[in-house]
Amino acid sequence: MRDILFRGFYPDEDGYSKTFVNGEWVKGTWVYGDLISIPNKNYYAIMPQTAASYTIQVIHATVCQYTGLKDKNGKKIFDGDIIKHYNGCDIKEYSVDTGRVFFYPQTMRYLRTSTLFPDDCHEIYDNNEYEVIGNIFENPELIENASK
Fold first, then answer.
1. Which of 63, 68, 76, 120 is most exposed, with the fewest beta carbons within 10 Å of its own?
2. For residue 99, what is the enclosing H or E element?
3. How far is CA 88 from its chain centroid?
4. Are 101 and 80 in contact (CB under 8 A)?
5. DSSP E strands: which ranges in 12-58?
6. How large is the C-alpha radius of gyration of the chain?
7. pLDDT of the chain along its 148 residues, tens only?
8. Are 111 and 101 in contact, with CB atoms under 8 Å apart?
């Protein structure tokens, strides 16, 4: 059984990250924990797993769920992450592919886009080798650069 875990971006001027939201860069911090939908409000909050007495309001558009998989370095892979997929192909230009991880509700699976084959999306599996190189919020240029 996989861990149910979410992350969201908390906008804070003292934060150590910058995230691209609604056309502008926002400073803040990534928060990890359980997702809480606040009744009668238009926002989500994360309750850190280390504390059960408070929640942190996060930017709705940045909420991502953990896929249950880890990359080759042991880093958790979340929806919205940008990953390298090592294909094990002998042809150098096809041996590494880059893509964005996303949840596809029609099949209830996590897929990744492909810069090598832009019309295809592939399911991510635990027996493949991936490496998280960023996410679509902090590093949107990684997808743009990879497709050139």
1. 120
2. strand 96-104
3. 24
4. yes
5. 17-21, 24-37, 44-48, 56-58
6. 16
7. 678 899 999 988 777 788 887 778 888 889 998 888 777 666 678 888 766 677 888 888 899 999 999 999 999 999 999 999 987 777 777 688 889 999 999 988 999 998 888 888 888 888 889 999 999 999 888 876 554 4
8. yes
Whole-model pTM? 0.84
Spell 116-126 as b/e; 16+ CB within 10 A means b: beeeeeeebee
Whether residue 138 contacts residue 17, with contact meaning beta carbons closer than 8 Å, is answered with yes
- Element containing residue 67 per DSSP (H, E): strand 64-70
- DSSP letter assigned to residue 38: P
26: left (phi over 0), alpha (psi -120 to 50) or beta: beta
